[in-house]
Design goal:
single chain; 7 helices; elongated; about 35% strand; eight-stranded antiparallel sheet; 20 strands
Length: about 300
Amino acid sequence: MKTISNRKSILLSLIAVFFVIYVFQLIFTGKSKVKVIELKDTEKQPVNKILLGELELTREEDKWYVGEKKYLCDYAAIDTILSSIKELKLLGKVTSKVSDAERYGLNDESKLTVKAFSGDTLLRTIYVGKNSSTNTQSYVSYDNKQTIYAAQNALRDVFTKTEDTLRSKVVYDVDSSEITKVDFKGAEGDFVLVKKAVQPGEELPDSVWSVESSSADFTGKLDDSKVDNWVSRLSRVECEKWTDEDRIGLDESDYTVKIFSGDNATTLYLKKGADEDSNMSCLSTASKYGFELSEYIGKRYTSTLADLAQ
């Protein structure tokens, strides 16, 4: 009986201890509310320039550009940077001791300085130190404050960028539903496909897509779903990396694909790599810069009439 009684006492004691811990957690959580330091981005004072250390980002109309050559920025990356600047989320004060700066990566040699401007007017400065050991928080100070704070998210990763990591990899992006013609040239054959314009209320033809011309005899019928899938791939090209130089002449490509959308035409040029493991060298009339695609991705922009047939 004493053994059972002792077990009950131990169990009740453990319950009491866990209850006290739970109460303290509730109290601590209540005191740890996130404090958001907002920066208003208004028409009168818009954020249109950002410095990430020495790297400069500038906004023109609704687009952001990076570096001296003003490469177009990746939308998702710039959106994360902007939201982190406009809403600095502080979890609490860590210290006000200047001597602790090195410990938190906020000494002059280690800190990353992030500045937001409207024209030449400085709107906000954030000094970013280390991320926490869990990589879910970071240590920061801002504007002229000496206090070091714990901030939500790994801001060191958010703001540590290069020209290449911020640059958009999108070469072009066209609405696939508006593509009405495709002119393809390749080693396996040349052909031109056209899409029949179907008016509202008009009965759909057996095949919307047809072969306008071909370098080889083609007596079959096109499969609209196969053509639509290929055209959908052709409507958007996202490169693996930019080369910033004309790697190939426009007349030296292994494949040429020209898509027509309304009054516009966009051409993609692809040249095979030295072997199957090498990237394709590419150009497009949509960009003045050369770029590369993996062999696998590049092949997705090529086709044959046999591949597109019913």
